[in-house]
Design a protein that fits this description.
heterodimer; A: mainly alpha; 7 helices; B: Alpha-Beta Plaits; 3-stranded antiparallel beta sheet; 11 strands; elongated
Chain lengths: 175, 263
């Protein structure tokens, strides 16, 4: 056998061994180890559910919620606020709309602080600004019939919460 | 052909080593792999066939308070700047002469309180005005998925379009392809980002954060495979429209009271 034939033989046999032998040697090994196989750039879970990396779905579902799922749990510890809230016009608003994230609070742990003052909950605002977020009649575009006032003429500089309870906002409503 | 024993052994041994080295790497990798945090809901792909999510927006109820935009940022750990947002609120003001004015100051996240803008609008003759919250339509035929060159954006079996943040190369093709402008480039990780209908929440039976905080029930969420779900009731009771139906993307956010001209 001439040397260049032998070289050709090696050049054929070695790649074939690598291509067939490697996957054969690695078959059945646990897939959890790394995102890709050592010889390839394609993620292992690629194609499990479709033309994408299958493990991406689990990455999205394992994010921890910050808002609690159901405000009915608030009633177990805050019966007072809960019952006045459920008897008033604000019962359509979630407690978390005004009080911010409470997913950890219901488990007895502190919730993360807002990353910036712009993302602070409504209760961090002074009362007039808080209530004006939803009730300012000067805003153009609100549906007809939604209860609105002009804060300047309705109350002047008096805090809205002096006459209205935030939980049961009818004047004289239970706090 | 004459292959000496020495050559045969060298060749064969080489081939064997080639096969075994990766196996060694593999075994050592398996030993040191970090434990992935257990998801509270286990393997969602075993459950997802039972659901098909849908979203409805009631433009006759929205008051433009913007709390949905803020809640989305908090729940999904988005940057505080209004230009990087997964959802936003637009105000449509239709004047008596037919002119249509659209604005969305800071994506609507601080409401529409700006008195200068309001005073200017009140000076015109307004025929009708209303707010239109916008978010990803989770299209059944999504152009963003089609154009992605690395298969980083994909549709789940329960009908939500997700972005694989590890695979995305930040080429922005999908941002261009989305006819609804629902995508943006994450300024920190340089990957495409968009609304997921709070996939982590809905997989646990919770409502998306924007739906949870909406004070007037203008955002409605539910499961099309559940006959009692709020979205099924909306489709039963109201005539609804979708945005840009002519594009054939089959969007799944249904708008109640959608005025023609809203795009």
């Amino acid at each position: 056998m001439t040397p260049h034939l032998r070289l050709a033989l090696i050049l054929v046999v070695v790649p074939v061994l690598v291509v067939i032998g490697l996957p054969w040697a690695l078959r059945g090994l646990p897939v959890a180890a790394s995102e890709t196989y050592p010889w390839s750039l394609v993620p292992r879970t690629f194609g499990e559910n479709g033309y994408y990396r299958g493990s991406n779905v689990g990455e999205w579902t394992s994010i921890a919620p910050r808002f609690a799922g159901d405000v009915a749990v608030c009633n177990t510890c805050h019966q007072g606020q809960f019952s006045s809230w459920s008897g008033g016009a604000h019962k359509v608003i979630s407690c978390q709309t005004c009080h911010g994230t409470r997913a950890n609070h219901v488990l007895g742990k502190p919730d993360p602080r807002p990353a910036s003052p712009e993302l602070a909950p409504l209760v961090a605002m002074p009362p007039i600004e808080l209530c004006s977020t939803c009730h300012d009649a000067r805003v153009v575009g609100r549906p007809v019939g939604f209860p609105q006032v002009n804060p300047e003429t309705h109350a002047g500089k008096t805090a809205c919460t002096l006459c209205h309870s935030p939980h049961n906002p009818q004047p004289g409503g239970r706090r | 052909m004459k292959l000496s024993r020495r050559k045969f052994l060298t060749l064969g041994g080489g081939a064997l080593i080639l096969v075994l080295i990766p196996k060694g790497i593999e075994t050592s990798l398996a030993g040191t792999a970090p434990e992935t945090a257990p998801s509270p809901i286990g393997d969602w792909t075993k459950e997802w066939e039972k659901h098909y999510w849908g979203f409805a927006v009631d433009t006759t109820k929205c008051i433009g308070c913007g709390r949905c935009v803020v809640a989305c940022k908090v729940e999904n750990r988005l940057p505080p700047e209004p230009e990087f947002t997964r959802t936003w609120v637009e105000r449509y003001v239709i004047l008596e002469d037919g002119e249509v004015l659209v604005d969305s100051p800071e994506a609507g996240m601080h409401g529409f309180k700006d008195e200068v803008a309001n005073a200017r609008l009140r000076g015109r003759e307004i025929r009708r005005s209303f707010f239109v919250p916008k978010l990803c339509n989770q299209c059944d035929d999504p152009p963003c998925v089609q154009v992605c060159p690395v298969a980083a954006t994909h549709r789940t079996a329960d009908g939500v379009v997700l972005v694989d943040r590890k695979r995305c190369i930040g080429c922005r093709y999908c941002i261009q392809a989305c006819p609804y402008g629902a995508r943006y480039l994450d300024p920190e990780e340089r990957v495409a980002d968009k609304c997921t209908w709070c996939y982590h929440r809905i997989a646990q039976g919770m409502k998306p954060a924007c739906v949870e905080v909406c004070p007037v029930g203008a955002r409605i969420f539910g499961d099309f495979k559940d006959p009692e779900s709020p979205v099924r009731q909306v489709l039963r009771k109201f005539s609804v429209g979708v945005l840009k139906p002519d594009l054939g993307t089959k969007p799944k956010v249904y708008y109640i009271g959608l005025q023609s001209g809203v795009r």
